[in-house]
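Continuing the batch. This is chain 6 of the set; chains 1 through 5 are on the previous pages. Same settings as before, nothing changed between runs. Recording input and output for traceability.
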Amino acid sequence: MTDLFTLLIALAFCITVHEAAHAWVAFKLGDPTAKHEGRVSLNPLRHLDLLGTLMIFIAHFGWGKPVHYNPHNLRHPKRDAALISVAGPLTNLATAFAIALLMKYLPQMPTFAFETLRAIYSLSIILFLFNLLPIAPLDGSKFLGLLIPRSKEDWYQRFLAQGPTVLIVLIVLDRLLAETIGFSPLGTAIQYGYEAVTVLIFLAT
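Output for chain 6:
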């Protein structure tokens, strides 16, 4: 029961700071859409997505409610869209780094606090890695837009539109492989990424 409770706290915290970062950066870059929708907020209820939350328990990675923005309000739409997108994963990475510092220099803490911080640390890195996948609606798909030439813009927009379907199919296939042959390509990639990020954070702290 305690493990479930700490996971719920970690989930609410990590997704909230991730989505709030998107909204705040969009607002700072000139688009008030997310602010008007109440997304520049640290209230978890404004950011949790039902399917994305369920996927945390089913597939051990997930997402929050997408932050909307109007590209017409951005001075440099393609660049600013990438900055808005990368703000979420980078906030998760910064969170993991801050928690690593806390756990290193404040080692004496109640067990529940330690387990909660450890859960937030782990989930922060998982969200950082998962959201960098270049598949819509994940953040990596918008960052990929910086590399797409203008001549391929129509293809890129179709790619974004098909992204949610591709993502669900990818997750389902990954789960089927995990259950039938005991190997999860996506889970394995995230695990290796997790270990690499943890080593870098350890060296930096």
